[in-house]
Design goal:
The chain is α/β, with parallel strands linked by helices and 353 residues long. It has 2 domains: 16-129 and 297-326, Nucleotidyltransferase, domain 5, CATH 3.30.420; 136-293, 2-Layer Sandwich (Nucleotidyltransferase, domain 5). Helix content is 34%, strand content 21%. The strands form 3 sheets. It has a 5-stranded mixed beta sheet. The protein has a 5-stranded mixed beta sheet with strand order 11-10-9-12-13, sandwiched between helices. Helix 1 runs parallel beside helix 2 and helix 8 packs across helix 9. The protein starts with 15 loop residues before the first strand and ends in a 27-residue tail after the last helix. 46% of the residues are buried. The structure holds zinc ion. Zinc ion binds next to loops.
């Protein structure tokens, strides 16, 4: 992974922050986050149309965060970015991201040139998994799997404290793991992929193809509101997910599997049958602990903050997070002002959000 130090000066403030950016399909979510994981300043913009403009808007967010941080006597030390696509963290380049319209986009070097801070980028699911794992006790956190289940399925494999990236930067492609031999065709062209059976899009597609009510959503299926057909589709989806996670369990021996993404809102309707099915599939060992994402939609941004501190050369031990601190809504007393100040929310709404 690259650690660019161009323009990185010695800290001049006791409160050091990373500038974190989570690039999503509809929203760019930026924040200044301190070493305790507390979010001090936020700024969001719509992602907007694909292409070069996405990077311009990302730059605008980070420039504002840097300026506002300095105004509050915070010291920005590095920038971390989580983004969809095929992400080469070593070169800081997004090799390909169809949703952003990017091919060979040198994100890290462009941001460093403009903002004079070291930059580290990663795939969004890997960034989110990094943040979730950071909150686990050292044992399970060092060997865990984070699975983001939304419209599609992505994963981060954390082994001995390191997130696997793979030879072609594509590790964690759990959604396109074939789990049903000769099964239904996936959008990727393969057959029987997990995503075709258990993802927001896959569940709804299968439900409707079998005569289900077209007004029902994946959340309705998860809540048991979609009748017998919905219950069966949900059950078959859970079985597909259990097959994929059983394979991962036997390959990587994680201490914990963390389920995130929109479908994790199903809570026990997902976790209980998943645990039961995995137990029945594993003959001679217990499944690892299954737990719902703690950070939810904030995981990607907090993971980007860890990347920002790592870009600045901080060791993991220098990033002291706890479940309490990352959810701490009380602001720091900044710049010698001891009276509480509201956390600035610099959101702007340009059209869709
Ligand atoms: Zn597929």
């Amino acid at each position: 992974m690259s650690t660019k130090t161009t323009g990185w000066n010695s800290p001049t403030s006791s409160v050091q922050v990373a500038l974190a950016l989570d690039i999503g399909g509809t929203t760019l979510k930026g924040a200044a986050i301190d070493t305790a994981g507390r979010t001090l300043i936020t700024r969001t913009l719509p992602t907007g149309p694909p292409g070069e403009g996405v990077l311009h808007r990302a730059l605008a967010i980070l420039e504002t965060l840097k300026t506002e941080s300095v105004k509050r006597s915070l010291h920005p030390v590095g920038i971390g970015v989580g983004t969809p696509g095929v992400v080469n963290s070593t070169t800081g380049t997004v090799e390909y991201a169809s949703s952003l319209g990017w091919t060979t986009m040198p994100v890290a070097s462009r941001l460093t040139a403009q903002l004079a801070l070291p930059v580290l980028i990663s795939h969004d699911a890997r960034a989110a998994g990094l943040a979730e794992a950071h909150l686990l006790p050292p044992g399970p956190g060092h060997n865990s799997v984070f699975v983001a289940i939304g419209t599609g399925v992505g994963a981060a494999l954390i082994t001995d404290g390191t997130v696997m990236t793979g030879a072609t930067h594509s590790a964690g492609g759990l959604g396109h793991t074939p789990v049903i031999p000769g099964g239904e065709t996936c959008t990727c062209g393969q057959r029987g992929c997990l995503e075709a059976y258990f993802s927001g899009a896959g569940l709804v597609r299968r439900y409707r193809s079998q005569g289900g009510d077209p007004t029902m959503t994946a959340a309705d299926l998860a809540s048991g509101l979609a009748g017998d057909v919905g219950a069966r589709i949900w059950c078959e989806g859970i079985h597909a997910l259990a097959l994929a996670l059983t394979t991962i369990t036997l390959l990587t021996d994680p201490g914990t599997i963390i389920i995130g993404g929109g479908l994790s809102d199903a809570g026990d309707n997902l976790l209980h049958p998943l645990e039961q099915t995995m137990s029945s599939l594993l003959a001679w060992r217990r499944p690892p602990a299954l737990q719902r994402s703690f950070l939810g939609v904030r995981a990607g941004q907090l993971g980007a903050a860890i990347l920002g501190f790592r870009a600045a050369g901080f060791p993991n031990s220098g990033i002291r997070w706890s479940p309490d601190s990352v959810t701490d809504g009380s602001p720091l007393a900044l710049g010698g002002n001891t009276s509480p100040q509201p956390i600035p929310d610099l959101r702007e709404h340009h059209g869709r959000s």
